[in-house]
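Input set for joint prediction.
Command: fold jointly, output tokens.
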Amino acid sequence: MSSRATAYIGKGIPMHDAARLACGRGRYVNDLSVANAAHVAFVRSSEAHARIERVEVEAARSDPRALAVLTGADLAPFVIQRYWGGWAGTAGADYLPVARDKVRWVGEPVAVVLARSRYDAEDVAELVEVEYEPLPVVIDSEESLANSDTRLYEEWDSNVYFHDEFVGGTPDKVFASAPAVFRRRFRSRRQTSVPLETRGIVVGWDVGRKFLDVHANHQDVFLMRASIAHVLDLPDNHVRVIAPDCGGAFGSKLQLYPEELACCCAAIALEGRWNIKWIQDRQEDLIGTIQARDIVADIEVAHDDEGRLLALKAHMISDAGAYGIPARGNTTEGALAATELPGPYDVGHYAYVLDVVMTNKPPLNPYRGVALPMTTCFIERVMDEIAKATGQDRYQVRRRNLVHEFPHASVTGWIHQPGSYVEALDRAMELIGYAELREKHERLRADGRYVGVGISSGCELVAPGATWYGERGVTIQSQEGCQLRIDPSGRVHAQFGTTAQGQGTETTLKQIVADGLGVPMSYVTVSMGDTSSAPHGGGAWASRQTTLGGSAAHVASARMRQKLLNIAGWLLEANPGDMEMVDGHAQVTGVPASSLTLEELAATAYYKSARLPEGMEPALEETVHFEPPPSTHSNGAHAAVVEVDPETGRIDFHKYVIVQDSGRIVNPLIARGQLIGATAQGIGGVAYEHTAYDDYGQPLATTFLDYLLPSALDIPEIEIEFLETLAPDNPLGAKGIGESGTCYSPAAVVTAVADALGVEVNTLDVSPNAVYELMCEGGIA
Amino acid sequence: MGRRNWTLRVNGATAEVEVEDRKLLLDVLREDLDLTGAHAGCEHGVCGACTILLDGLPVRSCLMFVGQAEGQDIETIESLEGPEELHPLQASFVEHLGFQCGYCTPGIILTVKEFLSRNSTPTREEAREAISGNLCRCTGYSQIVDSVLSAAEAMRSSEAS
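tokens >
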């Protein structure tokens, strides 16, 4: 990392160019003006698992408001290459935009209705009649694994989508001789990301050019383009994807969903007659957007009498839902849960078995934090059980077992570069006032109050390299691109393969470019999200964009700066080595009079280009693509003091602290915002949110009256401190931060409630009903 | 489904629209009047992204048919100053990162505008309560509260001067 002073990196600069959002002038997908629009409503399955006997569309088609009504049979010819995405070796089947012979989840599209308004399209959709022959429903993942008689995909021999086994070290031997062994079953409850803006797409098909034009609020425009092109057998350069302003995503806008694919197919099937527009409504979101956090984990623990964790074994069952969804497929959550269970702890012996199975629910896919929100809970509960079994302090047991020395090769093969695992925990314990809490809480307990402290310590894999997806056959780019241009009038435009859903991508990248070039931030504009003009990149996932987009920007701007100084030195007859960029001027160090403005340098590079040094290319453009190392780990520690109301099961926070190490923080204002927002989602995920299903596969949380999101009264004030252990293998020294809050807050809450009530909490559910049950178990209620 | 002419008073001006009886006020504002600042977040009155001011009070425009708004003053986010000149509320939300994706923001800002007209010296707790009917999925609320308090202060000093 350069030692030059930075004017912008490290400062909490507001998102000034997002001011339009505070004025209601954002352009989200539903705000786009679409000429000649046909609005889509879907006819959706009311059955979780059934054969489709008949789809009767004549009444709908003859309604004067209907522009078109398309069934699975009508659209099937347009899906040319069958494709579920996912790792090579995972199971697969035809990926259909609309069901044809069978439905496998309540809400699965069965027909597409187009009309001049959404209101009319919904009316016409009600005229479509579908006859189903119900089949047995597979809702429970353990039952799905055990029972191959009812198979979602009859051509398979079971419901297993993916199976994996791993042995590191010699766990069996260690278990056989360990002083103490215990086992626990942990469960996490299925939930979904619920961005406030639902999904949406506008598609136009140019019949003559055979060109598909797509506007969608997607997190990875290059993935969307690759997936659409692959499924429809179009070359990539015949598909354009543009992502407008996006009202949040959190991982649920990273897929090619059936509905969006159906819109693309409809556009082509109808020969480009209309521009197809579909905006998902909230009910469609709660029953059909990807879901997450659904694991049953049987964990065995071997430890010694001093509280040292010796070995782990795990069998994890991950509930994949009803179909594999491109491009990732459905292994990520389960596979990361299995490989990341040890977390920040030094465990040399570990074995796991992973089964990822199909059930009659929407598909499973990564949601902010992916597996960490669950595995941090599991391993922190393990630490608390070890503490109880050995009579040791909960903090000290964790401290003893954390990785202390770096680099650390985890038993599952990840390399952990230097982090502050111990220091973060120590500081969090200091901030929460841990030393005084035991006594204080005992006094409160004597008064009939249930107050506990939660401890959550973890590390998080961010910004991974190509081994996780690309090498396994998935069309996801781990690299990130920056295309830097100084225009002829002397101002800077940077484009990236990144996208923005509120995480401040444009602002942080602008800071990095401005500092890299030595120009005022006001000289720089940033754009992203259009596959026709952006450099290729990977988009928003795994907390990678500031780190990787920023690293590409850093390298590109260093090259550009050198070129500017070379030009300036040539024109001023000075040594470029004696020159520097200051505030948009190239000047001889310490001699401000001997300088040239960016405007003058640009004019030379573009208009007076014969004056450039011998052999130098004209124009001022640099494009850099940055490949990350296989893994980077950030780390953090949360601590929470929580009181449980014995009458209502309500949880109140007395204090909440976070110590976070994400290396170099480019913008502390944005970093805080990301941390707090992510923490809120983690709290919601254990205290309120659950996409519940009944035994018939009917979704029970279909509105915000049943799927509860935390409000301003449910999230505490949070004290935050940053540690900065710079990443050694990117020029910024940055590590990702966007997901960390979600990774560690569930465990802080769950372990706090367990401590407050003196009970075990092994299902990650501390909603009032669950807390009431726990209080009954603990003899409190 | 019957279509009818409706006369609405929006942001101080009269607007005439001809739409179906059943069309929601939210959709009329967005589609027929090009006021896309109010957003659909749930269409069942819980999230608050559709919040507008009706005769000065925050209401869920997703729960109203267009006809129910006739004869009343409708204020949308567009009634505050535009991006060249920010209203103190908007300026505070920018300065303190009171928004990230911006989708809930117009609804929250209008809710806060009405709240501050009743309570110009709010505590953090009062500000939290005031926005507790508006869901935000990005911020975790803390920086929204920072923005509200900062806006309250700015609006107090501009009143005073």
